[in-house]
Write a structure and sequence with these properties.
Layout: H1 2-11, H2 20-31, H3 38-59, E1 75-78, E2 88-93, E3 98-105, E4 115-122, E5 128-135, E6 143-146, E7 152-156, E8 159-164, E9 169-174, H4 181-187, E10 191-192, E11 203-208, E12 214-218, E13 221-228, E14 233-239, E15 250-252, E16 257-266, E17 269-279, E18 285-291, E19 295-298, E20 302-308, E21 315-321, E22 327-334, E23 342-344, E24 350-356, E25 359-365, E26 372-376, E27 389-391, E28 406-407, E29 419-424, E30 430-434, E31 453-456
Antiparallel strand pairs: 1-31, 2-3, 3-4, 4-5, 6-7, 7-8, 8-9, 10-13, 11-12, 12-13, 13-14, 15-16, 16-17, 17-18, 19-20, 20-21, 21-22, 23-24, 24-25, 25-26, 27-28, 29-30, 30-31
Length: 460
């Protein structure tokens, strides 16, 4: 098993291996301790990864984007000095016209633990200010949001953190006891599916409702917890019908209404991911038909989502009515990155992270017409077009060998910057938050074609 892990970790760096972020998540779960029957679980995961690897090499040349690229104009880049590559999250502050960005920073020389750095980026000139650094204890997923009072809220591990920009005051609030696996099981306040990986009860999704209530989903606990900033207390609780995991999403669809994604548990193993609607006033919930983990809300009662087709790395774009569950396919076999970042702009158009045939960037969907427009990153030399092959595998039967196609210009695509989040400001600029290291990071090797933050100006 150890040798198998090492080979797969090396394969993630191949330019044709899709979705390295998703692969790394799978490897992290394989490496982590599991719930009962862990050996059997590792065998299952290993088998799945082997199958995925084979299918990837068989199908990789067939993944072609059918979009007409909009070209690479309109892009600008921004740096985050002093930050490492890794997981990031961001929020737009309309009052101060800035972005608040958190970056998980690995342990550095002279330090004993990972940290989370908060950076303020001013929209006007893309200048940055390093605001604070905190321990990344229990970091499984990180979040940042700005409430109606202009306070900055962050969450990771088992903490909710408030940062007041004017006074620079920081205050932390531990999650309620109900989000602890041991307490939740004994108190019967939530359905718990312990993984035994040390991340049970850690934050996996966060959103702020229209009433300023802050809602948190935690790993492996089927409940959502509400925090009241005015009183500084955890005052709300609702059961959820799905198991929150690393890839879960959470959004507010109006007062007393939340939309989440999560997985079903089948024989103590993860099943498919679905979307569910939760009424926080009466505690009722409904699981909708789509099998999806990534989505964005449109007009309050519609969710646009990416649903896997059954073929590796292939998704359809569709929308679902949150009230009656009716579904409409918008784009078949859309070039969606996995995991996907979604955001809805002021005009109701949905933006998402895109990976197509020799194409990486973002794309824009009109949910009313299904029209799709792509915006490749500027460092992709031949967006969406075939690149000459100087040698290739003679036939599809070679999938089990080590034959990898060689392209005439291997620098046509400089890897995947791993889009973490999309944020839209009041002028309509789309800010793309990536996992790329800052330009001053001494550990960042290879060609620097992408930057930590990319900006696409409106009007494109």
């Amino acid at each position: 098993m150890t040798d198998f892990r090492q080979e797969l970790h090396q394969l993630v760096h191949l330019p044709d291996f899709p979705q390295p972020a998703l692969f790394k998540q799978a490897m992290a779960r394989l490496d982590a301790p599991r719930r009962g029957g862990s050996h059997a679980w590792q065998v299952v995961v290993a088998a799945i990864l082997v199958i995925a690897l084979v299918v990837t090499f068989v199908e990789i040349r067939a993944r072609r984007a059918t979009l007409n690229p909009a070209g690479s104009t309109g892009w600008e880049s921004a740096d985050l000095p002093g930050t490492h590559s890794g997981f990031r999250a961001a929020a737009y502050d309309a009052v101060r016209d800035c972005l608040w960005i958190i970056t998980k920073v690995p342990q550095q020389i002279g330090s004993t633990h990972d940290t989370v750095a908060l950076t303020r980026m001013n929209i006007a000139d893309r200048s940055t200010v390093s605001v604070l650094s905190m321990p990344a204890t229990g970091y499984l997923n990180g979040f940042v949001a700005v409430d109606a009072r202009g306070m900055v809220w962050m969450s990771w591990g088992k903490l909710l953190i408030e940062y007041k920009p004017d006074s620079k005051r920081v205050q932390s609030f531990g999650f309620p006891a109900a989000s602890s696996v041991s307490h939740a099981s004994s108190a019967r306040t939530a359905v718990v599916h312990p993984e035994g990986s040390g991340t049970d009860g850690n934050a996996v999704a966060m959103t702020i409702g229209p009433d300023n209530e802050i809602w948190i989903l935690v790993n492996s606990v089927q409940a959502v917890f509400g925090f009241n900033p005015a009183t500084g207390t955890w005052d709300r609780f609702a059961r959820v019908p799905l198991d929150p995991v690393f890839s879960s999403r959470l959004a507010a669809a109006g007062p007393e209404r939340l939309v989440m994604s999560g997985v079903v548990i089948v024989h103590a193993l993860y099943g498919d991911s679905y979307i569910a609607v939760i009424d926080t006033a009466n505690g009722t919930s409904t699981v909708l038909p789509p099998k999806a983990s990534s989505f964005s809300l449109v007009e309050g009662n519609t969710a646009v989502y990416a649903e896997p087709t059954g073929n590796l790395g292939e998704f359809n774009l569709a929308k679902v009515n949150l009230s009656n569950g009716s579904m409409t396919t918008l784009v078949a076999k859309a070039p969606i990155a996995d995991p996907a970042a979604f955001v809805t702009d002021a005009s109701g158009r949905v933006w998402f992270s895109m990976i197509g045939y020799w194409t990486i960037g973002i794309a824009r969907l009109d949910p009313l017409t299904g029209a799709l427009k792509s915006f490749p990153f500027p460092f992709v030399k031949h967006p969406g077009t075939p690149v000459p092959v100087i040698s290739s595998c003679p036939s599809r039967t070679e999938a089990f060998s080590h034959c990898i196609p060689q392209y005439a210009d291997p620098q046509d695509l400089y890897g995947n910057p791993e889009v973490q989040q999309l944020v839209i400001d009041k002028k309509g600029n789309v800010w793309v938050i990536t996992a790329v290291a800052a330009s001053d990071d001494p550990n960042a090797g290879g060609p620097r074609q992408a930057m930590p933050v990319m900006k696409l100006a409106p009007g494109n």
